[in-house]
Amino acid sequence: MLTDDERKERNRLSCKKWRENNPEYNRERQAKWYAANRNDVISRARQWQASNPERANALIREGKWRKQGITGMTMEQYQDMVMVCSAVCEICQKPSIKGAKGRALDLDHDHATNEARGLLCLPCNRKLGRIDKHGLFGPHKCPHNFVVKAFIYLLHAKVRQGVGGFWVSSAPAPQ
User: Residues of the signal sequence (predicted)?
Assistant: First the structure.
């Protein structure tokens, strides 16, 4: 004879197995529930975002990084990178402009390996992306001084990746 707790656990496992074997029903049921409760869900999400703005922004940024293919990057690592580079673009050395219409520094990454390379301002990140896509002599020619600075930045990024990456607080320094 089963106890009440054992019967509940057996029933829970049985229902879980059924849901796993019938994902289309579960998706349909969730869609119906969301349609019926959409306003409540949105309201609760907005309340949570208002009471946790830093965490909400971190989750949004981490989601954007995952969409770009950058995996394993956290907001803490990003903040470490900002501290290491003194909140300036690693190519043009201009400080990041945070504010109502300003932007934080972009996380630059190697599109071939999806590894983070460093922090760049938006204009430098776009120029570097054009060079990566079209080459030096493509339709968007960059000034010579930018190409030299970008080359130095890429060399430094390669060296950092070879010695354990950029982040300072998440891993001990290599010996």
Answer: none
CA nearest neighbour of 142 among 156, 117, 125: 125
CA distance 110 to 82: 18
- This prediction's pTM: 0.63
CB contact set of 46 (below 8 Å; sequence gap of 6+): none
- The domain that holds 144 is classified in CATH as 3.40.1800
CB atoms within 10 A of CB 126: 13
Sign of the CA dihedral running 154, 159, 161, 166: negative
Please give the angle made by the CA atoms of 31, 67 and 21, to the nearest 5 degrees: 40
88 and 146 assigned to the same domain: yes
Q: How many CA atoms lie within 13 A of 172 on its CB side?
A: 2
Distance CA 160, CA 15 (A): 50
The domain containing residue 21 runs over which residues? 4-51
Q: What does the pLDDT look like over 120-171, one tens digit per residue?
A: 988 888 888 888 777 766 666 677 788 888 888 888 888 877 655 554 333 3
How far is the C-alpha of 78 from the C-alpha of 55, rounded, in Å? 14
Domain-located, residue 69: no
- The beta strand positions in 10-90, using DSSP E, are none
